[in-house]
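ESCALATION

Customer reports they have been waiting on this structure for their group meeting. Please prioritize. Original submission:
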Amino acid sequence: MKSYQFRDYGQPLEAIEAPTPEPAGSELLMRVDACGACHSDVHVWEGEYDMGGGRKLDVRTGRDLPFTLGHEIVGEVIAMGPDAEGAAIGDQRVIFPWIGCGACETCELGKEHLCLKTRALGTFVQGGYSDHVIVPHARYLFDYGDVGAELACTYACSGVTAFSAIRKVVDLRGTHIVILGAGGVGLSALRMAKALTDFEVIVVDVRQDALDAATEAGADHVVDASDQNAHRQIKSLSNGGVCAAIDCVGAAATAKLGMRCLAMSGVLVVVGLFGGSLEVSLPLLPLKNMTIRGSFLGSLAEMGELMSLVRAGQIGTIPVETRALAEAQQTLDDLAAGTLVGRVVLTP
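Update from on-call: job pushed to the front of the queue and completed.
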C-alpha cells in the first residue's frame, strides 16, 4: 500500500510504502478511487487552528505518526472482514468519514460527527491520501449513483457540511441569504440552497474567478467582498438585509461582513475554520434579535438524505480539478495559499 504521509506536523508529505491492511471483524478494505483535498487537511497537517489574537489551538494529539490525510473518499470494496455485512465485493461507494466511538450518548443520538472520541478517517485515523483505506462498518458507505467518483467524493465533507448548514436556515422567514466564500464548501452550499430552498442567493468572495464559478453555479447575485461598500450592496440586493448569512470561510472579516448584512432576526451560521476572532457589539444581539451559531460537518442521517438527492439528480455540480496523488503536497500548498476554485481531487 502506498500512502502520502507526514512524519511530523508541518513537514512535507512523503510517499511511504506499507503492507496493505487486512480487514477484521466488520471492517472493509477499500481501494481508493478518488480523494478530495479539503482546507481542514491543512489545519491537521499544520497541527493547529488560528484562534485570533495570536492564540493557537494545538491539535497535534490523538493520531499516530506518520499520518495519512484525506477524508473525502470514494473507493471500491475489495475485501471484507468475517463479520462484515451490508456490502459486497466490487461495490463502489463514497465513505462517510465522521466516525465516532459508537458508545457515548452523542453517538447514540445519531451525532457521531460530534463525538469527542472521534475516529474520523483522515483526521484521526489513517485516511484517503493513499491507494487503500480501512472502513470500520458498511453503514458508512453510500451509493453515489451515476455521478463520477471525482465529484462523489466531495459529498463526504464539503457536500454534507453545506447540506447541514443550509438545513439550519431552510425554514427562516425571508427572501434572501448570503453565502460568504465561493470555495468548495461555498459552491456546495449554493447548490444545496438552490435544491432545498426558494431563497435568492447572494455569493460573496474576494476573487473574480470564484465569483465567476458562483455565477456559473446559479448564484442570483455576486458581490466583491473587497469592496468597502459590500455590505451596502448586499442590503440593497436583499431589500434591507438577509435572513441568513452562511460563512463558509470562518475568518474575522467574513463573519463581520455576514453580521452587518443581517435583517432583523437574522442568523449568522459560521461553517468555515479559516481562523481569527470576532468582536461583537453585544447590544446588537438583542436589538436585532440576532443569532450567531456554528455548524460543524453533518450527521450520518444527513449524509443519507444528501445522497438520495444526489442519486435523484437534484444536486448540481461544483468545479472539480483532478490531480495525481503524487501532487498531494502541492495541493496542500495551494489550499493554504487560497488559489484554488472548487475542489481538487486526488487519484492514485
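Sent to customer with the following note: The mean pLDDT is 97.
Escalation resolved.
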